[in-house]
From TrEMBL:
Pfam families registered for this protein in UniProt: DUF455
Stored InterPro entries: DUF455
Name the UniProt record assigns to this protein: DUF455 domain-containing protein
Lineage, opening ranks: Eukaryota, Viridiplantae, Streptophyta, Embryophyta, Tracheophyta
UniProt-annotated stretches for the region Disordered: 1-46
Length: 188
């Protein structure tokens, strides 16, 4: 049988990471001097369970709000503030109007768009992270009726994955902004 990942137990026991921005020396906590923590503006209190928070994330179209809600939900879960609960997953996760969902053949090249390759690749990576957030939450919500069978650890693992991916999405979004682009803006 395959050997388990040696870092699994350390990963599971780690507290939620607040290193949501990227500074000159690597990951750092976001600057919250002006508006308070981003999660405060993201409708954090709208879910009374992990599954309800997951359904809220899946129903949120704005990618940064989705990332903020994800971190708030996992932080509340990790602090013991949320039960798994029950919720119904939407048929499809909410998406912003841009970027358009197209087939791989329809995605224009960076040259055809006049976009630098680094911004193009960062946008692609951000898109992967956004889909990973939705996939992890969809698993939490869709399987919430099986909590007694699967156990809390199943849901904790997927919520942590969503939180990790939300951190990566925020890093990519930050770098895109530093390059003069946005995930929902200038790139297809």
């Amino acid at each position: 049988s395959p050997l388990p990942w040696p870092g699994l137990h350390t990963w599971r026991r780690a507290p939620p990471s607040d290193l949501r921005s990227w500074g000159p020396n690597g990951p750092c906590a976001p600057n919250t001097d002006k508006a308070g923590p981003p999660e405060a503006a993201a409708g954090v209190g709208h879910g009374s369970s992990l599954a309800e928070m997951g359904a809220l994330v899946l129903s949120t179209a704005d990618p940064l709000a989705k990332a903020h809600l994800t971190h708030a939900a996992f932080s509340r879960w990790a602090a013991g503030g949320l039960p798994v609960g029950l919720a119904r997953a939407p048929d499809h996760p909410a998406r912003p109007e841009k970027p358009l969902a197209v087939t791989q053949k329809e995605v224009p090249t960076h040259k055809a768009m006049g976009v630098p390759l680094n911004a193009y690749m960062l946008h692609n990576l951000a898109h992967v992270e956004l889909n990973a957030i939705d996939l992890a939450w969809d698993t939490v919500v869709r399987f919430s009726p099986l909590r007694d069978t699967l156990g809390d650890g199943f849901f904790a693992d997927f919520a942590r994955v969503a939180d990790d991916e939300s951190r990566h999405f925020r890093w990519y979004s930050q770098r895109l902004a530093e390059l003069g682009f946005s995930f929902c803006g200038q790139i297809w």
